[in-house]
Amino acid sequence: MKVLFVCTGNSCRSPMAEGLFNDKAKAFGKDFEAKSAGVFAPEGFPASQEAIEVLKQDYNIDISNHRSKSLRRQDLEEADLILAMSNSHKQSILSKYPEYSHKVFTIKEFVGLQGEVEDPYGMPIEVYRQTARELDNLISKIITKISEGREKR
Question: Is 12 a catalytic residue?
């Protein structure tokens, strides 16, 4: 199962989600893998310092090797599930690639919740901590949901 997390610049939310997801999947012994991309991401930039710091300090997850990448058709083809941080990201994907609509959701929509994961970019580190906690909670729900879906097959 390949999951793709999508945000704007691929420097805060989606790299944190990718790191948290891969760590949790490994801990649960699941054969799941996450990647991330941004709808308006420059190529090759590291995750924000705050995102790196929060994941390292609070979760012992190292995303310092992350490099931003722009969303490509190939990413969408390879992913089994595409989870956008906001409705605008989802709409951006669907406007360019409507053929993938069956596997594109907002991260909250996928687990039956309303709303979006707010962008911490440029905010104090405590906002990044709140975002990481929110993502951590959502990712637990996502892993449970996709695990249950696989067991039903």
Answer: no
